[in-house]
Amino acid sequence: MFRIDGMSRTPVYEQIIEQVEKLVSLGIMKAGDQLPSVRSLSIELSVNPNTIQKAYSELDSRGIANSVPGKGCFISESAEDAIKNAGRKKLAILRELVKELALSGVTKEEIEKAVEDGLSIPAEN
Amino acid sequence: MFRIDGMSRTPVYEQIIEQVEKLVSLGIMKAGDQLPSVRSLSIELSVNPNTIQKAYSELDSRGIANSVPGKGCFISESAEDAIKNAGRKKLAILRELVKELALSGVTKEEIEKAVEDGLSIPAEN
Amino acid sequence: MFRIDGMSRTPVYEQIIEQVEKLVSLGIMKAGDQLPSVRSLSIELSVNPNTIQKAYSELDSRGIANSVPGKGCFISESAEDAIKNAGRKKLAILRELVKELALSGVTKEEIEKAVEDGLSIPAEN
Amino acid sequence: MFRIDGMSRTPVYEQIIEQVEKLVSLGIMKAGDQLPSVRSLSIELSVNPNTIQKAYSELDSRGIANSVPGKGCFISESAEDAIKNAGRKKLAILRELVKELALSGVTKEEIEKAVEDGLSIPAEN
DNA sequence: GTGGTCTAGACCACA
DNA sequence: GTGGTCTAGACCACA
Questions:
Q1: Which of B7, B8, B15 to probe by mutation at the D interface, max D CB count within 10 Å?
Q2: CATH pick for B12-79 out of 1.10.3130.10, 3.50.50.60, 3.30.930.10, 1.10.10.10
Q3: Which nucleotide is nearest to D51 (CA to C1')?
Q4: How far, in Å, CA of A74 to CA of B1, rounded?
Q5: pTM for the whole thing?
Q6: A45-91: per-residue pLDDT in tens?
């Protein structure tokens, strides 16, 4: 269910967060669903339990999951909203990136093509 | 000529690189122009000389400048091309970002609006 | 008669204690009344019997109930007093909370409004 | 500058967060001020660096400080606002606590007295 | 020196 | 079993 790229620059705990967000966005995980336990996932991914813990507590503080001591970690009711709102905040990054590309000499057409590509493949990985 | 945001998450050396690229893209600096000396810039920006050094050698390895030991660091002939090519490589990042936003539930309209905004304000900061 | 919020951060056994206290405070349960048996309540709430046991023995040591082995758990004569005294001890928590809020910049008016609200809706949940 | 109560139930990292908030609320620390480094504070308090790290990264994600890798951790511009807003969210807790006390039989007068006490000693510990 | 990530492993309260 | 906290200590990128 989860896959870690040890070569990647993005921290392991961040990779886990992103994958949970993806599963929720795709509707594969829904509010109330339980995530694998810290220990079981740490074994499955050959990763230290602390790293999973960090991912889960981040998901909790982002409003995507509820970590309930003694019971488990569950997708929260507000998960979809929290993810969408986080996405909205990233629109500013998108704007800056476009501006930077335009400035560096990349043409408007190349940029719009890339955006279209991104929009047209909505659920491929 | 250069400004460093000490609070920013982007490394200081990266901020310097970005600003050199911007100056070239805007045509303010051209092939053959000399960058400030490592020492003078380090003093001007209150930054460790090693950090400037790192920025300049990165600019060198990216084909944007030529560091000539004992003489200085100069904008290279290939600077504009190198910057544009780097920009093209960033199109992939743009594509991924758009895909990620779309997946997280941000609407197509919001995304296209942000792209337009980025394109319409070509040289504001 | 009892409801458990599995998503809540307050431990299940604590939730049970609070609900017993509320029933006594509201006069719904009185001295001598018998609480549901450990087994039956554990089944009703889909909760581990150990958890109910823990709640009941806590109620016992707080002087709110008497656990009689082999017979059951009964609201004690001193229940109302015990609850009121526990409440008085919580006045210190209230004082600290108010102090903390005031210190954090919340205005006196906002605090007094919240207190009034709490006082005016005496028995809504 | 910081003091840890090893006997307390509140986690060490939380104690540190609270103390930073208090220092900001009291105007002792201001936007831009640098917190002690992770290592130095860990030595001063005889606490593991990871624990300080956790406190600082929490302060960061709460908008109270900016952790800048390689430079240090600084009180953010938005610190006071962030603290005040967090306080406002705690008003709901206050309301519930008052309701619970009133229900348990504590008189209105006792409650109001405690609130006044909390308000009248604005900066004692 | 400074923060950030991670492993290894312990201990706690709660279910 | 389940999450939460913490120590001890390593290694990384950046300043």
A1: B7
A2: 1.10.10.10
A3: F6
A4: 51
A5: 0.85
A6: 999 999 999 999 999 999 999 999 989 999 999 999 999 999 999 99
